[in-house]
Structures are given as structure tokens and as C-alpha cells.
Design a protein that fits this description.
Elements (H helix, E strand, L loop, with lengths): L16 E9 L3 H8 L12 E5 L4 E6 L7 E9 L3 E7 L8 E14 L2 E12 L4 H28 L1 H12 L1
Antiparallel strand pairs: 1-7, 2-3, 3-4, 4-5, 5-6, 6-7
Length: 171
């Protein structure tokens, strides 16, 4: 008598998961764009790590918080002052269920010294059991929120505020 997959684990849905977050930042749109552009030395991740250009639209990112890990980044969109998007494949050493992300940052000026930043993350996960899916999406959502919050703090208060936060996170 066939079992018809009764004891086969239920798998998570396939395809990317979309996470959209936004924040108002008390800085001009052009300044915020410089902070997200990987080709700009003022990039907010470069302030807490190292970004090395490896090609016309590609970079390697190393973060002080995660020594020994190199994250390959590919720039997929760059509209100065308006939008910027990257694709990142997680290194195997990270482990976990996340395979890659496409992160897009849209910047809309609200006035001369304030803008609205909307981040859209499309996350592709490795195949996993359905029982792990909600947890992985919740963890990624928290990480996306953390990144947007750090961008806002960096833009409004400077890199020293970010270094203090990250020192507490590592401790």
C-alpha cells in the first residue's frame, strides 16, 4: 500500500520573500544616497568595516562585527540621489537558511533636509522545512530593520553612534 508522502516533511514555500520597511531621515536625500552607495567611500557599512571594489559593479564587504567573513556584493541599480540596489550571496561559512538577498533602497526627498527611505529586500532561502520558515523570515525582518535603523542613526548622529551600538552588540 503506498504511503503517498504522509511522513514526508512539509517544505517551506519556494521563491523570494519580500520585506519592505521605511523611515524618515533628517538628512538631505543626496547625503543619504552617499551612505548606501557601495562605490562611495562614505558608505555607512564601510565606516564599520571594509569595502573593496572587485569589478565595475562588484565589491567585497567585510564587517568589523563579523571578522573573517567576506560578503560579495553586486550593484544592480544606481540612480544617484534616488535609488540604489545590491545583490548579495551569503558566504557558506555563515550557515543558516538564507541564500541571497536583493536589497533596494528608494530615497524620496521630503524637503531640503529630510527624506523618506524605503528599503525592499527580496530574500531567497535554501530549501527548508516549513516549521523553520516563519522563524527565518522573522530573523531576516529584524536584521533588515536593524540595518535601516543603523542607516538612520549614522545619517543623523554619525558613525561614532553606530560604533557604540555595535560594540554593545558584540559584547
Amino acid at each position: 500500500m503506498p504511503v503517498f508522502g504522509w511522513f514526508k516533511p512539509k517544505m517551506a514555500p519556494e521563491g523570494p520573500v519580500e520585506i519592505v520597511l521605511d523611515a524618515e531621515i533628517e538628512r538631505p536625500a543626496e547625503e543619504v544616497y552617499q551612505l548606501v552607495d557601495f562605490g562611495d567611500p562614505r558608505n555607512f557599512k564601510a565606516a564599520v568595516g571594509t569595502i573593496t571594489r572587485t569589478g565595475a559593479n562588484s565589491f567585497d564587504m567585510e564587517l568589523d562585527m563579523l571578522p573573517g567573513l567576506t560578503f560579495p556584493i553586486t550593484e544592480v541599480e544606481a540612480v544617484p540621489g534616488r535609488s540604489y540596489a545590491i545583490e548579495g550571496v551569503l558566504p557558506k561559512a555563515v550557515g543558516g537558511k538564507l541564500h541571497k538577498t536583493v536589497e533596494r533602497c528608494e530615497i524620496k526627498p521630503l524637503d531640503d533636509n529630510r527624506c523618506k527611505v524605503t528599503t525592499t529586500t527580496l530574500a531567497t532561502f535554501k530549501p527548508m522545512k516549513a516549521k523553520h520558515f516563519d522563524f527565518e523570515v522573522a530573523m531576516l525582518t529584524a536584521a533588515c530593520n536593524n540595518s535601516l535603523t543603523k542607516l538612520k542613526i549614522h545619517a543623523e548622529q554619525g558613525v561614532e553612534a553606530i560604533r557604540e551600538i555595535e560594540a554593545r552588540q558584540v559584547a
